[in-house]
Every structure is written in C-alpha cells, then in structure tokens.
Amino acid sequence: MPLEPYILTCGIRFLGMALNAACGLQKVCRKFKPHLLMVFAQLGYTFLYFITEASFNHGMNPHVYVTYRHFVSGLAMLPFAYVLERNTRPKLTLRLLMEIFVLSILGVSLTLNMYFASLNYTSPTFLSSVVNTIASLTFVMAVMLRLERLDVRNPHGIAKVVGTLVSLAGVTAMALYKGPVVKNLWGALIHLNGKAKIHEDWFKGSILTIASCITWSIWYIMQAVTLKRYPAQLSLTTWMSFVGGAQSAVFSALVAHEPKEWIVGFNIDLWSILYSGVVCSGLIIFIQLWCTEEKGPVFVTMFNPLGTLFVAFLAYFVFGERLYTGSILGGAIVIMGLYLVLWGKEGDNADPIKSKEPSSVDSQELKEETKDATNYYGGSGDGKKSLDV
C-alpha cells in the first residue's frame, strides 16, 4: 500500500476519533453543567472567607461592607440584565416587587449582616462548617412545601434522606471532633495582614450564625417560588442587589455613626468589596438562581459542604492554619452524603420523562372514547363523511 493514502487514512481515522471524543465530552459537560457550576461557586465562596476576614481584621465595618458589596454587585450586573433579558424579562407587578423586597431582606440585608458579624466572634472554618446545616434545613422545608419530591419506597428517595443525614453527621463531626493535629510540612505561604482579632464571644457568634442559616434556608426556598413567576435570573440578581444594598444602608447608618467607617482606601477593604460584589453577590448568585430553576433549592444547598472542605484545606496548605484529623474524617463523610443526595436527585430527572409517556390506562380510555365517537357517527371512521350521509 502506498505511503500517502495510508497516512491520509490514518489521519481521517484519528480526526474521527477526536470528533467522537469531543462530542462525548460535550455531552458530559452539558449533563453535569449544574454540578460544575456549583463547584465553581463554592470555590468562589472559599476565597471570600479569607478575604473578608483580612478586611475585617484591617478594620472594615461588616455592615458597611455588606452595603458597598451589594451596590457594586448591582452596578456590575445591571448592563447584562438590561441587554440579555430585555425581551424575555416579565413585567414587574406589585406582588413581585414585594417578593423581591422580602428576598432582599432574607438573602442580603438581614442574613449577611448577621453572617459577617458572626465572623468577628468565630473563625472561617467554624463559620463554613455551621453553614452546612442549610442543606438539611432546606431539604426539610422543601419536602414540607412539596417543592422536593420524596418517595421513601423508592431507592432514590431513600438515598436523599440518608445522604442528607450523612452530610449532617459529617458536618457535626467537623465542628465537634478535632482529633490529633496533622503536621504541617511547610509554613504559611500567605499571611493575612492586619490586626489579629481574638475570637472571644463564641456564644454570640454561634447564635448569629445559626440565625443566618435559618433565614438563608428560607431564602433558598422562596427563590424557587419567585423564579416560577419571574424567570429572569440576571434581573432578579440585580434587583436583590440594589434593594438589599439600600436596606443594609439604612441599618448600617444606625450602627456606623463615624464617617471614617464609610471611607474605603486603596487596600484590602477595596479589593474585598470588589471581589465579593462582582464575583459572589453577582456572578455566583446568578449561577445559584439558574441552578435553582434547573435542579431545585436542595441541589444548590447540598454543595455547601464542599466549601467547608475547600476552606479547611486552603487554610492548611496556604495560610498555615492547623488541620485536625476530625476535619478530614468529617470531610470524607460529607462527600459520601453529597454523592448519595446527588444520586437521589438524578432519579427525579428520570421520572418526568416517564410521566410524559402515555400510560396503558390512558391509551385504553382513548381507544374507548374513539370507539364511542365512531359508533355515534354511524360506525364510520370518518366523522365528517358520516355527517354528510
């Protein structure tokens, strides 16, 4: 066989294999797009913990930070919402405006002010661990409100219940059991500048964290309801940012009286506001809204435990903080629970497809109705023809 045709044949075969592999990868990415986006969201939140802690240690007021953060988010998302959803955005009604106002309280002004205030009394690792209870709270609320299907006779339904309990057990282990310290092989690669704050009031911090988890869970549930009437994620993100920023500004004005508390210099305070506003309150909230509409609120909250793992390992490898074996053990348990819940959720995706197919009972009823209509029009299969007779 001549060499040139052989090379050409091999090249065509290789190109075909590459195209098949690319198509297969595209299908996998399309199928697991919500999963990949939620992992990206948790990575974004992981950096947020350390950036905000450094900013608060530098002297940034948490309430002023929440206010600036959401105004930045609103300004960043406004052009995209206006252009991309100009023709698809539903008309705002008074009821929708009230829902957005309540959503902004639950997800922005009230929740985040309590959440970041608690960071003054606790630590990023503790905060990210307790926040994982949102997944269990949201699951219970969603089942009670029938936003989440649960059939305990089905293996997928059992997997969701067991997975939620396993994840909660893993989070509890991370929070309560420390175990021996894992030896750090090197020092801190990055040092957080600023006045190191001694976390003294863990009771007050715990109360604030738990309260924010409860309101956050209600926020996730209410998102799913609002998105059915207002399926414009970019516009909803923009509205919540501006309304929540205004609400937080009113509260911040009552607690932050000194003008110097509102002044932001070209330092870590500015970078924390820009990062949290554009990435966390803008891009990530949009991702969560999209995933909520696609998969439901329980799917979104079940990825929160990944944030705890990312925070623990980043604190250990980069910032030189201590890592305990309890965190590793609890993290492994959390991952097991997460996989169980996600497998259970995949069962929900298969059910609607089956429900769309006509059942044998429906087919039999359709045949009987057709037969009755045929007899009524004189036994002919053509109704128009029978009427002409």
Give average pLDDT, whole number: 77
Derived from helix and strand composition plus strand pairing, the structural class reads mainly alpha
In DSSP terms (H or I, runs of 4 or more residues), the helix count works out at 15
The N- to C-terminal Cα distance equals 76 Å
Number of strands: 2
Radius of gyration: 27 Å
The stretches of 5 or more residues where confidence is low (pLDDT under 50) are 352-370, 372-389
Largest sheet: 2 strands, antiparallel
Q: Give me the side-by-side strand order of the main sheet.
A: 1-2
Number of domains: 2
Question: What's the helical proportion of residues?
Answer: over 70%
Element pattern in H and E: HHHHHHHEHHHHHEHHH
Q: Beta-sheet strand percentage?
A: under 5%
Spatial shape: globular
Short description:
The protein is mainly alpha-helical and 389 residues long.
Would you write up a description of this structure?
- The chain crosses the membrane at residues 6-23, 35-52, 64-84, 96-119, 125-145, 157-177, 202-222, 234-256, 268-291, 298-318, 324-344.
- Residues 350-389 are annotated as: Disordered.
- Pfam families: EamA.
- The protein is mostly helical and 389 residues long.
- It folds into 2 domains: 33-190 and 197-357, no CATH class; 362-389, no CATH class.
- Helices cover 76% and strands 1% of the residues.
- The protein has 15 helices and 2 strands.
- A two-stranded antiparallel ribbon has the order 1-2.
- Helix 6 runs antiparallel to helix 7 and helix 6 (133-144) crosses helix 8 (202-229).
- The longest helix has 32 residues, at 325-356.
- The N and C termini lie far apart (76 Å).
